[in-house]
Amino acid sequence: MTNATPSRKPKTPAKKTPATSVKKHKPATVLIVGAGFAGLGTAIRLQQAGIKDIVILERAGEVGGTWRDNNYPGAACDIPSNLYSYSFDQNPDWSRSFSGSEEILGYIKAMVKRFDLEKYIRFNQNVSDLAFDEDQGIWNATTDQGDVFSGRAAVMAQGPLSNASFPDISGIEKYQGHKVHSAAWDHDYDFRGKKVGVIGTGASAIQIIPELVKDASKLTVFQRTPAWVVPRPDFDTPDWQKALFRKVPASQSALRKGLYLAHESMALAVIWNSPMTRLAERLGRWHLKRQVKDRWLRRQLTPDYRIGCKRILVSNDYYPALQQPNCKLITWPITRMSENGILTAEGIEHQFDCIVFATGFDVGHSGTPFPVRGAGGRKLDEEWKRGAQAYKSINVAGYPNLFLTFGPNSGPGHNSALVYMESQIDYIVKGVKTILDKNLKTLSVRGEAQDEYNSKIQKRLAKTNWNSGCKSWYLTEDGVNATMYPGFATQYARQMASLELKDYELIPA
Amino acid sequence: MAMIDLDKMLAKVKSTQWSLSDIDWDAPGADLITEEQWPKLKDFMTDLMWIEHVGARAFAAMAKKAPTDTLREIYTYFHAEEQRHANVEMALMKRWGMLDGDELPEPNINLRLIIEWLDRHSDEVPVYVLGTVVPMLEIALDGALCKFLLDTVDDPVCHQAFEKINDDESRHLGVGFSVMEMQGHGATYIKTVEMAAQIANPRVILGIASYFPLLNKMRDNVVAMGLSEEKLYACMEKFEKIGGRTREGRSNPWFQIIKFHSRWMVDRNNKFYHVPVDALVKATSYIPRKLLPAVPSWVKELTYEPTA
């Protein structure tokens, strides 16, 4: 991912209390689910457009989404902070080129204060159902707490990767030692002197491993597929740069533009198979050869798929960590788990005090995080069974006045997720303003427009590296790519720049 | 042998995994190894363990080049399973007091050369070359050696372990012969030309130069241990019989080459083959170990410990 390692369980999850009586709240203009980057950004832009009747439902007790939940040791963003931030709220004080999760969470919290967003947020409200009331033209969100919040328009900003996923390993329930998931880190567990196993070598794992190896007496890393890893140009921000950005904000905007264009050029390597792809693979192989001298270990760490097909990882300290005397990489297939640890096919039982699952998230290729019921009682998860579909990633036919952030085919492979998010947010503002200005009961995308859009996007996807044969979380089990956007961020921004009323059905209030 | 369903085979492989801890290494019976047997058995087990281990590395190379995802996954498991067999054999050596502390037993020079070749070249050799050689080695060496071992050793733990190993090996052979037949489909002429090109491949030439003396050396070793030469040859003939059962199998040019080689090998009167190859065996025995590079790190992954 081009942001962080996606989100998961709330740090302070809303308690599921039996709803004895339903408490209905006065309908707002816009109802937003989730107070992470997307939800808060949407609220800011709506506010700036003069729409201030907003309710944000947040399942945890604080804001931050991904960056609140992903606070494992070493958690950081793999996009430069000057690009992984909102253009309308730039921060001159980033301490590093690639900031850690704590600093990013601080930025989000500061944004809430700066734009006075807290008044919109209802904390500890975990949405369990979102349903459209056709008669009244409003969306009703029922929460586990027994409340019903309503809005003329609804924005799903709960995050594309918000639920931790455990691997399908036989006997996983038998393991008696301590278990930790990267997305719900146990900060009370003391790893010092412990025998620790890490399952997974993806984006979270390669950040966790260099930290754990400092504390664990023995660290064993289980890898199924090696990823492409490229160097991370990470450095402390010099004081003069911070001063310059404060005095001349245009200089920061210029740097942001430069970073944006540099990342745009990477699309040529990442998305499509081009000479740039070969160059990127060379860079990955050079990085591996420079950092790993042992031929067998290098062989174990060499990817066997085209770069870009899966998420590219950036790290300077992952390969060195694997070569520490107390660290061992295991590439034998895992056969099952036992009371004491993990058994692998070479016949050995690897025993641990603690196992860290850095195994990612349940990706909603076909499901929704909670039931979403549209016009005529249709259910979104049923319609998405064969792969999620939307119009321009943001609207779904049959679900009027509903907007998605990071909906189907909006994932970036080469640029900042926030760049895409800004395009989505501005589109939502346009949509909401259309509903208000034209006093519409429903603004509903036409099915034909959605079908035409998807047929084009799937044709384009067929030519990308993501669909070149490797198995990744971008694809459904049937091989449908319902996750990524096959183009430059600039193309995406252009497609989101205008709301084509001809593609919508407008019903007046 | 009929072609097998590789998807079903993969499921079977996954569902029949076992580990060293399934065997009670302290069960009675270790004392059934006689004093007379002990030194010969130690050399025998060392060779056997190394053969399993080089077999493991060959499967690793085949996994990298496998033509389908299923076959790639099967070979990945077979790589691990051969390693498991080597681990088990090392654990038996430990049980019988044949290990010098935690030290790995030293491989003979011909195995050492094969290890070197596998480490440097095997990943670049086409899958169908190794795909024919490996079944031959499995059926001849593994098959003959394991049978000999069970005929001569009474320790029940050894029998328990080899029952499991033999189950795995039967699946390896099933897949091995099936893949040989898959490679036999299609135009024989094209395949023959491709094969001829591979024989000119320096990597393959080096491999042949290591493989021929290895077989003669192993023959000498097993004969020295009391295994009749005929039993080894009977196993090699089994390769010819099973591999050549179908038209597809027979039209795999690599099968034909290995078949003719095994005929030369079993014919002691074939001086054109045995004189130079035996000379090679002798010549390799003079190679100073110090001249060889350090053993590759995959070798160091062998262990007799059921837990880590």
Quick one: CATH class of chain B? Mainly Alpha
Number of domains of chain A: 2
Number of helices of chain A: 13
Measured by DSSP, the beta-strand proportion of chain B falls in under 5%
* The CATH homologous superfamily of the largest domain in chain A: FAD/NAD(P)-binding domain
CATH superfamily of chain B: Ferritin, core subunit, four-helix bundle
Describe this protein's structure.
The complex is a heterodimer of chains A (509) and B (308). Chain A is of the alpha/beta class and 509 residues long. Chain A is 29% helix and 18% strand. Chain A contains 13 helices and 21 strands. Chain A has helices spanning 37-48, 66-69, 101-114, 205-215, 239-247, 249-270, 275-291, 295-301, 318-322, 380-383, 417-437, 447-462, 489-496; strands at residues 23-24, 28-33, 54-57, 121-122, 127-133, 138-143, 147-156, 178-181, 195-199, 218-222, 229-230, 313-314, 327-330, 334-337, 341-344, 349-351, 354-357, 372-373, 402-404, 440-445, 504-508. In chain A, helix 1 packs across helix 11. With 308 residues, chain B is an all-alpha fold. Helices cover 70% and strands 0% of the residues of chain B. Chain B contains 12 helices and no strands. In chain B, helix 5 crosses helix 9 (229-243). The mean pLDDT of chain B is 85.
Task: Write a brief structural summary.
The complex is a heterodimer of chains A (509) and B (308). In chain A, strands 1, 2, 3, 4, 5, 6, 7, 18 and 19 form a nine-stranded mixed beta sheet that branches. Chain A has a five-stranded parallel beta sheet with strand order 8-17-9-10-13, with helices on one face. In chain A, strands 14-15-16 form a three-stranded antiparallel beta sheet, with no helix packed on it.
Using brief descriptors, characterize the structure shown.
heterodimer, A: 509 residues, alpha/beta, FAD/NAD(P)-binding domain, 2 domains, 9-stranded mixed β-sheet, 5-stranded parallel β-sheet, 13 helices, 29% helix, disordered N terminus, B: 308 residues, mainly alpha, Ferritin, 12 helices, 70% helix, 0% strand
